[in-house]
Amino acid sequence: MKFGFVKKTSGAFILALSVFLFASCQDVVFDSIRKEVKLEDGNIAGDIRAIVRFKDCFYIANGGIYYKSQESNFYGAWAPSASPIPTGQTAQVIKLAADSKYLYALVGNTAENQKEGENVGVSRSVYYSEDGSEWHVIESLGTKGSIPYASKQIVYTYIFCTNTIDPANRKAYFVLNDRQIGKTNKAYELNGPNVKELELAPVKPDKSPNAGTMPFSAPTLYSQSCVWFEGEVHFFHSTACTTNETTTKPATMYYYGLGSTLYWDGEKKSETGMVCKQGFKALACTADFLIAGTTAGIKHYVLGANVPGAEAPFSTNAGSTLGSAYIINSVLVTNPELNEMQTPIYASIVYTGNGSSNSAQFDHVGLWAFYPSRGNWNRE
Questions:
Q1: For a surface tag, which of 45, 122, 139, 296 has the fewest beta carbons within 10 Å of its beta carbon?
Q2: CA distances (Å), 183 to each of 177, 178, 200, 216, 239, in order?
Q3: What is the pLDDT of residues 152-167, one digit of tens each?
Q4: Residues 297-331 pLDDT 10s
Q5: Cis peptide before 215 (omega within 30 of 0)
Q6: Where are the alpha helices (DSSP H) in the chain?
Q7: 368 within 8 A of 43, measured Cβ to Cβ
Q8: What is the pLDDT of residues 357-380, one digit of tens each?
Q9: What phi and psi values does residue 305 have, to the nearest 5 degrees?
């Protein structure tokens, strides 16, 4: 009898546990369904590496260039802008940057490889514009504006900017790096048709690109991003960095991701950083969250006294639409002084491989936006 009681009890327990687990799974499924929304047509597709503030507009590059007014935060507001690519030339706009007066475009020039039957990269050029419409090549970079790309030793080119809300603090930079220390590595501050070559901060040749004390007060051959903080520019070896600057107050903190570790400094400083499972690609602040674009989707971390805390689930559909199948290359918050649910936010996504093995969808690649009036993320 005792044995029978144990069997019956165990069976009842297993049945109850199964019902509980089924109900829990159903809750997750139903929660995901509740957050699903009808997708808008994706009009801004492609690999978008940055969302740049220039004058009173936002600009992006996806092979061409699109822009919108900073006040036009609604679906359908993006419009194509004039391209710096000369008529008849096969090229793509790779990335943009801006300072207080000029918009800059890094252009990849290609040529047909008749043997392979495909276009291959041959050079890079940097263009500048005062209005986003009329473009001119910066002839002092490379040979009359042409920087060889296809060679035995690939030349890496990085263009980036402080991207501050305050136009007075916007600075733009260009780094040329052939990964051979002491060779043709150069860094420039851009100023329209003129460039100022900067002295590179030293990086030991026996160290990895991420070695050294961060941030650097001058660019290195590995610099890929920067922030303006307390009257100075700080340079980083990753693309993920931001400050807590708002439309009404200067920054009191800056944040940067290095691989899978998040750091911060300013009024509060991280000692060892916060280690996460994914690699950081982009960062942006709201009043209540630090939003991170990563190699495994969009994340956000609770901000308490401007210090990042635990990763939190989204109350919107961000976790499903910009999920772990995608790389989030850029994020921009329109009004960082507001809470996440109160401000327009933009993010761009891509994926690696063909997408078939990780549930990624090709038509999701491109620009996405969250608008408070809509209450969800959707394609732009």
A1: 139
A2: 9, 7, 12, 20, 24
A3: 667 789 999 999 999 9
A4: 999 999 999 999 999 999 999 999 999 999 999 99
A5: yes
A6: 2-35, 318-321
A7: no
A8: 467 898 999 999 999 999 999 999
A9: 55, 40
